[in-house]
Predict the 3D structure of the following.
Amino acid sequence: MKINGDIGIGIILLIIEAVFYAVSFEFINPAAAQWPRGVLIVSAVLSVFLIIQGIRDKDAYVAPEFKSIKAPLLALLVMVVYCTVMDLAGFFISTIIFCPLGMYLMGQRNLKALIAVPIGLDLFVYVLFVTQLQLQMP
């Protein structure tokens, strides 16, 4: 059975959005969940439009080749591992590990950037969120 890629992507996005929407009910502060829920609702509406477009354009089926989906699948895998490590080791350690890895996978080969960006990101987040806003990072 051939299916338009827009339909497949729209369905996958709806599933991901539903999972994240359900997770938003586990937030400690209910007010903090309002923005993510709003973004997820807008994204879900756009996903429905994508599915409708795929249904209307039945002749646009293109079989995906592995080389065209390899990079997105790798990025998804890195994000899942990043979230898992963040849960175990915390934000700052996991960011120091996975930020340069993600940058390298996206094509960054400048060693100074691979070192400076994760350190700068951690410092920025620490100063803004921990010291100024007094939030606890995972």
Summary: The mean pLDDT is 88. Helices lie at 5-23, 34-56, 66-89, 91-105, 111-132. The first helix runs from residue 5 to 23.
